[in-house]
Design goal:
This protein is an alpha/beta fold and about 210 residues long. It has eight helices and eight strands. The chain has helices at about 15-25, 45-55, 70-75, 95-105, 150-165, 180-185, 195-200, 205-210; strands spanning about 1-5, 30-35, 60-65, 85-90, 110-115, 130-135, 170-175, 190-195. The mean pLDDT is about 100. Bound molecules: D-xylitol-5-phosphate and zinc ion.
Length: about 210
């Protein structure tokens, strides 16, 4: 299992130290939640702050867009060269076009599914995607309770990926901790995002290690 701590739960008063700490503690990606106050009822950070995160990070960025007007935000964050740039399918009329745009910018495209969104909606996009992110909470806030139906969804998505001979990775985001990570691994999940569990612990390395099942 790869681990991507969500910096939403970091102490923003000492963001630089927090990023250094999770990278030193062995995280695989640095998950950055971008919220616009429209698609979700919360507002987070823009490219100025994410640029500071990118400079401090020794691991690649995994930028999760929770916004309206995806193409505008793709253009805004692409210069920071994240490894992954993911957008919500619920907010995109032309996902195939946007996937191509992200790939042409040299970034791995990913699509995010809210808890109610079936994986069948993106079946014909799987070959073009490097990752699918399944939300296991309603997007907008850290520290929420894990929604277990994501396990069933991961299983059927994995089946779809294998059937199509695609190499798409599955990431799960929201309420992940050491009690549910094993079930996620068994369901075929490759990467977990964890905010509260990592940044709320008093030993980041132990917390990250406990998710590497
Ligand atoms: C929620 C965000 C998540 C969140 C995860 O909208 O996408 O990345 O920060 O935080 P935890 O692990 O605390 O649920
Ligand atoms: Zn996220």
């Amino acid at each position: 299992m790869l681990v991507a701590p969500s910096i939403l739960s970091a102490d923003f008063g000492k963001l630089n130290d927090e990023i250094t700490a999770i990278c030193t503690a062995g995280c695989d990606l640095v998950h950055v939640d971008v919220m616009d106050g429209h698609f979700v009822p919360n507002l987070t950070i823009g490219p100025v702050v994410v640029n500071a995160v990118a400079k401090a990070a020794t691991k690649p960025l995994d930028i999760h867009l929770m916004v309206e007007n995806n193409p505008f935000f793709v253009d805004l964050f692409a210069p920071l060269k994240p490894r992954y740039l993911s957008f919500h399918i619920e907010e995109e009329k032309h996902p195939h076009r946007l996937i191509q745009k992200i790939r042409d910018l040299g970034i791995s495209p990913a699509i995010v599914l809210n808890p109610h969104t079936p994986p069948s909606l993106i079946e014909y996009l799987l070959e073009d995607l490097d990752m699918v992110l399944l939300m296991s909470v309603n997007p907008g806030f850290g520290g929420q309770k894990f929604i277990p139906s994501v396990l069933e969804k991961a299983l059927s998505l994995k089946e779809m990926i294998l059937k199509r001979n695609a190499e798409t990775l599955i990431e799960v985001d929201g309420g992940v901790n050491d009690t549910n990570v094993k079930a996620l691994a068994d369901a075929g999940v490759d990467i977990v995002v964890a905010g509260n569990y990592v940044f709320g612990s008093d030993h980041y390395k132990n917390a990250i290690d406990s998710l590497k099942v």
